[in-house]
Amino acid sequence: MTSNNEKSFLLQRILQKALQITEWFKDQNFKSYLKQDKSPVTLADYASQIYIISKLRKYFPDDSIIAEEKYIDTFDPDAEKLIKKCFKSLNIDLNLDFKDIINYSGVVSDYQWTIDPIDGTLGYQQGLSYAIGIGYMKSSDLLFSAIGVPHYNELGNAFFIAEKGRGAKISYGDKRFNSISVSKKDNLQQARICISLHYNKPWVFDFVKEAGITNSLQIDSMLKFCMIADGSADLYIKPMNMHNSFSWDYLPGTLLVKEAGGKVTDFNTKDVEFVNERCVITSPGIISSNGLLHNNALNLLKQIKIS
Ligand SMILES: [Mg+2]
Predict the structure, then answer these.
(1) Residue 285 has pLDDT above 80, yes or no
(2) Structural domains in the chain, sorted by start
(3) How far is the CA of 118 from the centre of ligand 1 (A)?
(4) Distances in Å between the alpha carbon of 8 and those of 14, 53, 181, 244?
(5) Which of 77, 190, 206, 260 sees the fewest Cβ atoms within 10 Å?
């Protein structure tokens, strides 16, 4: 598969099905597990990852895959049964060993896919926003990204696609992709800022107050990058710690915002560098904006006590 248009449609189809999987699980009574870092993982995360990996493995057998979830031995016996039931009811024909496929990392290659089967699992569990993200890079060079967002607006599920040098676009599940671009707002006080709902720090609120921003939106997941990319929001500030920040979380949104004409940097104006599964930054957070607000926001951040 070489055509990038084909890749857009393929990734959209994969995300469309993955969203059906995660939405199917919402109606089920199922267990969630705590990972080593104490963050939650649900059967919906696993089912979504199994499906996405099975497709990427089929279409890109020579590439490497970096996926968020690892198989855990504490699965209860009904877990696999429920995942199979989901696949059956959605006409997904997968006869694979779940453990093998969850842990599948492809072949060693400069071409690497990242998969976040549910970004914003905490929000997902509470019926709030979440997203599913797929990224693609060649030796840290971001090439492609695809993000699926359920119930994005009155048009339904949205699929955001970005391709290096060819812009960012949105589709609502049909064959049409429309270009998107960041907002033109250049007044910080009038900006609409996105901030994290569950993974935030008090200094972000200090920033919002100092900037005189009154329009802020607290939501989970990489949906915040999507909103910067299509101009629904103007600024996003995220506390980050290199030890728990991963490529699957940030790669898709970073490329999307850049291709939509915006910026994503750390507080020293350096690009986030993606090295295998790690995000490398030189400050305790990142900032994403429409570009016009970037320097003003960074200058104000220098006056905030960040701890
Ligand atoms: Mg996740």
Answers:
(1) yes
(2) 4-180 (3.30.540.10), 188-302 (3.40.190.80)
(3) 4
(4) 10, 17, 18, 29
(5) 77
